[in-house]
Design brief:
By secondary structure, this protein is mainly α. Helices cover 42% and strands 3% of the residues. It has one domain. A three-stranded antiparallel sheet has the order 1-2-3, with no helix packed on it. Helix 1 crosses helix 2, helix 2 packs across helix 6 and helix 8 crosses helix 12. The structure holds heme C (HEC).
Length: 318
């Protein structure tokens, strides 16, 4: 019996995928195609963008939104965020929706090379199809900005190969749902892990730059650009175990801690947005509440990040 045209197409696609990067990539490709099969809604996409902390790495301090070129220091070199505005030549204006989807969720760039894992695609891999397509529609609605991407200054031999190997070893095989969970702890977990990606900063990394799963949200002294990122598990002594859900919502909404101090650094950017771009502070309160409720369910980890001097000081005081 002769195979039908559709069967032949499927076999060809399967063979091509298997050659390219194995079965996991194939499944991801199928999901990305599914996500962009319908057009997104830019107004809803703006909310996703806000929940993603305004994709802040891509916006320079004084704007414009998404223009890229921001330096991100890591132990593996200095990376420059890319232009994600719809400029045809220097941004993503000429990319198809599928190409943008693959760049966000699969770490695959136009042309097939693999992104540096500084772009948190392993976390976005779990972003739901509806959120992804709306986010893409919103990115396409930004004013285009002409700004050439700047090459990364990578301290690794054969960086492109290294990124490919890293992806194979560490990127995991998260699969994306068609629609985002609508409410409750499930929504909070989804937003925390796959949209707001709190762990991208709050979970410490191993020597390969992969998040240490057993230290989920327990903070690090070596955060992005060398920042100290606090422990946000419910440990009462070293985390935020004494905060209630409302405290956490106020922090995500206004950047204010229960002691009336304001958050600084990259957390302030995640909350306030950069140069007027929407970020957590402009996201719907019920979504921030879902995040806060979920964070309260995360197992407490005792992880003291204060430096030795501060600890000694405290001991003397008591
Ligand atoms: C871009 C990196 C980054 C992301 C993403 C991020 N944070 Fe933070 N966060 C920080 C940094 C840095 C600080 C410390 C700010 C300071 O010292 O004032 C912080 C502080 C905090 C604090 C205050 C803790 C304390 O003890 O003072 C909370 C709570 C918090 N973040 C929760 C979250 C949640 C929830 C998310 C996801 C919705 C999130 N953060 C996403 C970098 C980040």
């Amino acid at each position: 019996m002769r195979p039908t045209a559709a069967q032949r197409r499927t076999v060809r696609l399967a063979a091509a995928c298997a050659l390219a990067a194995g079965l996991a990539a194939c499944a991801a490709d199928h999901e990305d195609a599914r996500a962009v099969a319908t057009k997104g809604d830019p107004a809803r996409g703006e909310v996703v963008f806000a929940l993603a902390g305004g994709c802040g790495c891509h916006t320079p301090e004084k704007g414009p939104t998404g223009a890229g070129g921001v330096a991100i220091e890591t132990p593996f070199g200095t990376f420059y965020s890319t232009n994600i505005t719809p400029d045809e030549e220097t941004g993503i204006g000429a990319w198809s929706d599928l190409e943008i989807a693959r760049a966000i969720r699969a770490g695959v760039l136009r042309g097939g090379s693999i992104e540096a894992p500084v772009m948190p695609y392993p976390a976005y891999a779990g972003m739901a199809d509806d959120d992804l397509r709306d986010l893409i529609a919103y990115l396409r609605s930004l004013p285009p900005v002409r700004r050439e991407n700047r090459p990364h200054e990578v301290k690794l031999p054969f960086p492109r190969l290294a990124f490919r190997a890293w992806r194979l070893l560490f990127a995991g095989d998260v699969s994306a749902p068609e629609t985002a969970p609508a409410e409750g702890i499930a929504r909070g977990r989804y937003l925390t892990d796959h949209v707001a990606i709190c762990g991208d900063c709050h979970t410490p990394r191993d020597a390969f730059g992969a998040p240490k799963e057993d230290m989920y949200l327990a903070g690090t002294r070596e955060g992005p650009n060398g920042e100290l990122v606090p422990n946000i598990t419910s440990d009462r002594e070293t985390g935020i175990g004494t905060w209630d859900v409302d405290d956490l919502v106020s922090l995500l909404q206004m950047g204010m801690k229960p002691d009336f101090d304001n958050v600084q650094g990259s957390m302030a950017e995640v909350v306030d947005g950069i140069a007027g771009a929407p970020a957590l502070g402009k996201a719907p309160e019920r979504d921030l509440r879902a995040i806060a409720e979920y964070i309260k369910t995360v197992p407490a980890i005792h992880h003291d990040l204060r430096d030795e001097e501060a600890k000694e000081g405290q001991e003397e005081e008591t």
